[in-house]
Amino acid sequence: MPSRKYADGEVVMGRWPGSVLYYEVQVTSYDDVAHLYTVKYKDGTELALKESDIRSQSSFKHRKSQSSSSSPSRRSTSRSRSRSPGRPGRGRRRSSSQSREHKDDKKKTIQETSLALPPVLVLFKPSENNTKRYNGEPENTEKNDTSCIILEQKLKPDLELKHFEQYGLRSRKDEKKKEEIYSEKKIFTTVKTMEKALSKTKELEFGGRIGTFTLIFLLPATVFYLLLMCKQDDPSLMNFPPLPALESLWDARVFGIFLLWFFLQALFYLLPIGKVVEGLPLSNGKKLQYRINGFYAFIFTAAAIGILLYFQFELHYLYDHFMQFAVSAAAFSLALSIYLYVRSLKAPEEELAPGGNSGYFIYDFFTGHELNPRIGSFDLKYFCELRPGLIGWVVINLAMLLAEMKVHNLSMPSLSMILVNSFQLLYVVDALWNEEAILTTMDITHDGFGFMLAFGDLVWVPFVYSLQAFYLVGHPTVISWPVAAAITVVNCIGYYIFRSANSQKNNFRRNPTDPKLANLKFIPTATGKGLLVTGWWGFVRHPNYLGDIIMALAWSLPCGFNHILPYFYVIYFICLLVHREARDEHHCKQKYGLAWERYCQRVPYRIFPYIY
């Protein structure tokens, strides 16, 4: 049985799997059966490495000292003797003799070094942040401060050395300068190649290339299917709706109204009102600036809608042409996605999205190739996240409320419609009021802006999230006041969990030493941040998702139980949050290492207590 070379607790240099990067690690244990060392990186990540992938720190120091020769002192001695004022002839003979000795020593040193050392050795001494970066995780907490040590030990061909010895045409100063330039070019090329390879997306989501290709067609088909089902008298899942004529799906006037709405929200976004805040540091250390004025845009939109209603504009026009509006939004999102991908091809490497840089066209087109595409200071992704789709959701709900009153000749909307509008209005206003919190979400810090977010923001949110209101227009449901009160309690419970959990997390992130948070306990991590194990985050790992699901259920209950169609949103929301939770688990495990495993042991349930 081979004996182990490194002891537990010993600090060594461990090679990162799949690369030539060596990081400072600490040996924690050794497996006698598999002959693998378990080592711990500075960020808390633990990996099992072979003995061949581990080297002592002294070996690196030895090689670094070996690469610097003592020849400068000899050259200095040679120059001092040759420039002696006395006995010039003998000085020249000594100079030529010493030159030959120096060349022999240099050639011997080169031969020994070429046998002892590899051609190129690139060492990165990672700080906490660049370790996370090369793990493939998005930088979302601190500035990426990369410090590196690069030892360039590539030797010149023997032919050039013989040429120099034979003719002696170059001075030592010129030769040294040429060597430095050669070394710098080689180092620059090596580092750029390494960074480009490491920045590629390794793990593909959504089923990879085949899955994303399918979703590009499946998502629009799902939206159109749901809208056609709601128009039927019997919206049963087995009662497939007849397909409308293609020419009836497109209306140039409707498309013009959609463009007017989009650019009106863009105008509100550009207004110089609201505070300007900085986002989280990017991979290059920069911080983008964002203007927080979403709530003001909502107020201006409400005023504009009020003016239209005052002049008797029929807002239920949205209901009459709902399918055409959905098709217009889908066409616009597709055109926007094509534009985003084309412009991302010219974007610098550091501006590409960590999750959308796989090198596969379909995958990068779907997930988004560029992280923060901007036209000047106009951030396209940040604008679409909250403005056209989210505010449009509220406007569509209002249009459905007015359409219900007109279709059924009501003097006031039904109690079910009032509940749906009120609950979802509260959700949208909360998102706009807490707009700054979106800057720390995965959508902003990790996901690129491609078809997935463009279609989701401009089509899925306004036309699927308003499904309950659209359903109630054609399928009115009467509920009693006690039932309405019970549904309201359910929504309030979900909202309380959602808002208090997010506030607890945000306050702890901003100021962990706040006396108001003194009762909260946490697990320290290698990143310098803590993982809450009390409060809502000690109840389940993602209490905000639990609140989301409870609210989604409350939005669907006013529609009754005659059909499952209004509950599609609840089913979709559960699937979406389970997917997000799995992705969050993966990134947190990479980011926090053993601290996350300890947290999972303390908080075993992910979303649903005692269930999942």
From TrEMBL:
EC assignment: 1.3.1.70
Chain segments carrying region Disordered: 53-111
Cellular component per GO, a single term: nuclear inner membrane
Keywords (A to Z) from UniProt: Cholesterol biosynthesis, Cholesterol metabolism, Cytoplasm, DNA-binding, Endoplasmic reticulum, Lipid biosynthesis, Lipid metabolism, Membrane, Nucleus, Oxidoreductase, Phosphoprotein, Receptor, Steroid biosynthesis, Steroid metabolism, Sterol biosynthesis, Sterol metabolism, Transmembrane, Transmembrane helix
Biased composition (Basic and acidic residues): 99-110
First and last residue of the signal peptide: none
Name of the protein in its database record: Delta(14)-sterol reductase LBR
Organism: Oxyruncus cristatus
Lineage start: Eukaryota, Metazoa, Chordata, Craniata, Vertebrata
Gene: Lbr
